[in-house]
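Preliminary data (for renewal application), zinc ion complex.
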Amino acid sequence: MRGRLLLSWLCLLPAAICAQGTRPAPREGAGAVTILHPARVFDGESMHEGWAVRVRGDRIEAAGPSAGVTIPGATVLELAGTTLMPGLIEGHSHVLLHPYNETSWNDQVLHESLGVRVARATNHLRATLMAGFTTIRDLGTEGAAYADAELKQAVDQGIIPGPRMLTTTRAIVATGSYGPKGFALQWQVPQGAEEADGASLVRVVRDQIGHGADWIKVYADYRWGARGEAAPTFSIDELTTIVETARSSGRPVVAHASTPEGMRRAVMAGIETIEHGDGGTPEVFRLMKERGVALCPTLAAGDATAQYAGWKKGEGAEPGGITRKRSSFQAALAAGVTILNGSDVGVFTHGDNARELELMVNYGIPAPDALRSATSVAARVLHLDGRVGAVKEGLLADLVAIDGDPIREIGALRRVSFVMKGGTVVRAYEGRR
Ligand SMILES: [Zn+2]
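Predicted structure:
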């Protein structure tokens, strides 16, 4: 009873503190001490040769030059040749979707049963964790109700393996703007997100919070323009209503936006991260920089959908969408916009999340900045700093060992040889890969 009282008291604290689940599954040897000896440590900011990390229970107790970290009696784990990093953070996932070249989005939303989608999602969560991603922000169930919040409970209770989750439940779209589309107009077709407008936005934001949303996601534009192009949806006043309603509960708001006007309205309304941003102009990116709004570029989603549409990489002309995306991403970098690693995984295979970081580097971001966007910077943007995102005393022991040095070769991120979450080994060391 006392434990329950303590827990409910804890959850009066800001969402950022409670979002990750304050109830770790009971483990044996919670006070056990392990010393990890990799070749080097990327601590979330920079690389350090010859460091070691000491883990006690679910926390990092010490990180620094090996001699100062070693204590007698501890279990020592040699991770020769590896880079030890904070567990990676995925800022934009959809665990309830699977690749569109397997099944179209329309068919997933309308034909796949909730039970089947949840069953798939359990596989997706395991694959994500085994790939070294120990935290995800999942940005909408796309018709699967509140299953993200329910899966998060299953992970937090130790029922299934998976990363720590921040959830958004159904997400919010303007009436008439979203999909699935293409049906006889007399039918009311179930939508992939929750429709709301004007005054009803207050009720819908609160209702999603009540159903487990850690963040509120809104579509600030969508492909509903007069000629099918992307066009803004909500007014600034509507977006502001969403932000104020969410914020009074301690929850931030994230916007899907790819048009300059949709992005501008989202920024002016106080939204904290913008997803995609494909049509971003230097002016809009300057505004984002001024207001401290982060960009989740989702380069991998565009790369995947272009290939599904028939583009063979390295053959023929690059699709215009890819060329434009590269140049808008470079404009965001030039403006100094904070980049949050986020791939839109679900459009492509779960567990292949490193694809975003590879593309970021390929499109021009320095490798150390790419790594920060998935560790320390991601933790800050997602209000999780002080808990995850760094190899630092007192933080949760979410740690991943990579065979090789991802600053020299970003693709090394795919060679995960060890994963620890909250001090528990979830992927045992497999040696050199
Ligand atoms: Zn998405």
